[in-house]
Amino acid sequence: MGDANLFSDTFTLTDINALKYDRVARLTAHTESGDTLMTLDVNSELFPCSVNDRLQLLLASTLSLDGSKDDGKGWRDVGRGEASVADEYDYVCHGKVYRFEEGNEGDEENIKVFVSFGGLLLYLEGPYKNLTGLRQDYVYLCLKK
Length: 145
Fold this sequence. Notes:
This protein is mostly beta strands. Helix content is 3%, strand content 48%. Strands 1-2-3-7-6-5-8-4 form an 8-stranded antiparallel beta barrel.
């Protein structure tokens, strides 16, 4: 997929909070190396999870297998039978990166990334070298167990 792959890692779920909204759970997880923290809102009916589940996360700029740009074609416009990266994942969303924060004075190595998928939010905090590729307007989130 080349440079269309902006971030990819495996996370272990440490907490699930489904108390605030119907059918929405806020997942808290960390990478196996422990250097990146993720908080993600998901539709719990479409993607049920349990604490200690391992999730594979991919953030990409396109769903095309060859890494080509979408050229204004949305994810819903992919032709029937046309293969895409989404075929390999259980939960796929398209969202906007709305905030990007550099590390604080004492933590210059870490950055924070905030993405909204139609109101379902993703928060990532981790090393600058891993997350700097997310300086994009729009991303696809692909998730599987």
